[in-house]
Amino acid sequence: MQGSANLNVMIKAARAAGRSLVKDFREVENLQVSSKGAGDFVSRADIAAEKIIRDELMQARPNYGWVGEESDAVEGKDPTRRWIVDPLDGTTNFLHGLPHWAVSIALEHKGEIVSGVVFDPAKDEMFVAEKGAGAWLNESRLRVSDRTKMIESIFITGLPFGGRGDLPETLKDLGRLLPMTAGVRRWGSAALDLAYVAAGRGDGYWERRLNAWDIAAGLLIVREAGGFVESLSGEGDPLETGDLICGNPGVFDKFSKTIRNV
Ligand code: 2AM
Ligand code: CA
Ligand code: CA
Ligand code: CA
Fold this sequence. Notes:
The chain has helices spanning 5-26, 44-60, 91-95, 167-177, 190-198, 212-224, 238-241, 252-260, and strands at residues 33-37, 40-43, 65-68, 71-74, 81-89, 102-109, 112-120, 125-130, 134-137, 140-141, 154-157, 183-185, 204-207, 228-230, 244-247. The chain has 262 residues and is α+β, with helices and mostly antiparallel strands. The protein has two domains: 5-141, 2-Layer Sandwich (Fructose-1,6-Bisphosphatase, Chain A, domain 1), CATH 3.30.540; 150-260, D-Maltodextrin-Binding Protein, domain 2. The strands form three sheets. It has an eight-stranded mixed sheet with strand order 4-3-5-6-7-8-9-10, sandwiched between helices. Strand 9 (134-137) and strand 10 (140-141) form a beta hairpin. Helix 1 runs antiparallel to helix 2 and helix 4 (167-177) crosses helix 8. The chain is globular. The N and C termini lie far apart (40 Å). The structure holds adenosine-2'-monophosphate and calcium ion (CA) (3 copies).
């Protein structure tokens, strides 16, 4: 696709971080890891990747603000634009040698995400979107699936870990959903979960207790691929509520009613 200058800057930063992450992933057993809380780990790889992205983006656009998972937020000289970055989404997979994790970079303008990049370096899959211009995987245009039958559809979610999250609520969701679908998948990277719905590899996705950097890029990619994205309650912006439900237009109504139990 013919991306904007900003999108090209984002892609370059994601590729640079990807090279660093792939190198660390090859020697993952030597990585220093610390815990930020139960089941929530951060490694030297997360921090190195964030520094690479931050340096690249701040140098290219010195006036923009910054929010990243592993470093302090910066209010930009231009208060209308900021980067929202997760340098490594899926750290738990990464640390277990599972090749399913991604770099997520979004650009917000006046409270709206206008460009998004989710890069899976292990598979060399670059998912990108720009508001109003569509979504792409490498050179191919992305489109959500056209399935309409719940029983043929696959849904993606995240499950509580390390004692965090609402286990009873999750089990109730699954109890209603599982019998009427082709299955539920739990891959461990919210950014890729969204990118996969955009690519039609999943028909819907829902999760609670997310941070803006997990989903900012991915939700634009889903929308630009023709999917619906809402907060779980249907009110407010998922970037603020920290929960979301999305899906292709053919199943979204039935799927969201099932999860919302209405
Ligand atoms: P992270 O890898 O950037 O921390 C939502 O599932 C998000 O929760 C994931 O994208 C992941 O982002 C984060 N998370 C943190 N610890 C996790 C764990 N132990 N298992 C799964 N997800 C975890
Ligand atoms: Ca983390
Ligand atoms: Ca994350
Ligand atoms: Ca992360």
